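User: Hey, my collaborator sent me this sequence without any context and asked if I could get a structure. I don't really work with proteins. Can you help?
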Amino acid sequence: MIYFLILGFSGIIFSSLLIYFRKHFFLALEATLALANAVLSNEDETVKQKKLVVALKAMLISLAITIGLICVIVVLTCLPVYIFKLIKNVATQELDLGSIWVIVSFSIGTIIPFLIKRKKPIEDYSEASILFHKLILNNYNLSKMLFSFDRKFKKGEKIQDKNTFLIVSGLARAGTTSLTDQLFKAGAFSSLDYSNMPLLLAPNLWKKMYNPKKTDLKERKHGDKMLFGLNTIEALEEYFFKVFLNDSFISDAYLEKHEITDNVYTNYIKYQSLIRQDNESTYLSKNNNIILRYESLRKLNKSFKIIFLFRKPVEHAYSLLNQHQRFSEFQNEDEFMQTYLNWLGHHEFGQNQKVFKFNNEELLIPYDKSTLDYWLSVWLNYYNYLTNMEDKDYMLIEYEDYLNKPKEVLQYIEGEMNMTFNFSNIIPFTNTREIDTTNCNPKLLETTDAIYQKLKFRKLKY
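Assistant: No problem. I've predicted the 3D structure and written it out in structure-token form, which is a compact way to encode the shape of the chain:
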């Protein structure tokens, strides 16, 4: 009886060590897939070889650590039985190592550690889910391969490429999420949603394996009473550009203006056709980074429609400051959140906040990020560029107009898109918040107000 209890204890040791060292095993799996990702690269051979060497070195180190940990686990698992054998002075061949009771005792022991409730790493994602996200979203060449598979997979459905689509954009906190959600509910649009994570470039293959019909809604972390669930559309298409541009427009401090090639544009249109449900639907996306490539995209396509939203500079800056502080605290508590936002190209606020850079000149903002002046400068940088763009073929909507007259705003967009909308979900809203600007730079307030007046003059009138 004691022997079988010892076997059960060995089982507990075995599972406990597997759980304790699990992150090392996860890293080994990540390193292995990273090597496969490097092999799939179509980059210059010299660059590819350097990346292969780095990936191979990382994989071999992880493999060596894994083998060492497995040896430790085996030794420590066998140690109780070995000690029992020494105490009882029993030969190894005399031990029962193959009966059903041996298997049952060891199996029960291995199960016990998994029954102990452990704290989840974060609220919304299990460790397995986090690992799956890392394996897919960290490996751009693998994502490209999945994109190619998905195109072949959906080819039989004969969804035609369509040059007409709608992008909702603007500096973060301008109301882009709300407007995009209203448009999706009102018209025959197709868009990415949270259920497409993490196989963002292979939505149809993923849907065959994972297709939640309906999920509970909860308030997003912005604290703005916007609800979301797995079926809620979100700004997820930026991952496409990150993959096909290999993050070339992202530096340590900036998101930089860039041009897209004909090949990237062609794949972008094909990507939209993977997301669209049928030939009658229109692709809809929220993308706050699209301004970085807007002029380039417009040269390649005169047909698509885009909306830029803006709001009063002080209110907008205050909202950005509030979210920056809020997300910085979240990221201190949850290291995965920043990784998640980086994958999606969300650098609007938080610890990895980056500023839009529209030319080759060094962009320096002489204010601390904890001040309203910093975020007024961010606002000025964005909307000064927007007002000075040569191309004016976009719809410019003020946030307050959307809040106060949502139906009129959507009716205008309905006409521009030549579509028929359902207006049953529209509810007007009034923003009455007052912002204290006592400590703000008067010159900065004056400059931002001048740009704001230009935007108001240029905006759509209802």
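In plain terms: The first helix runs from residue 2 to 20. You can pass these tokens on to your collaborator as they are.
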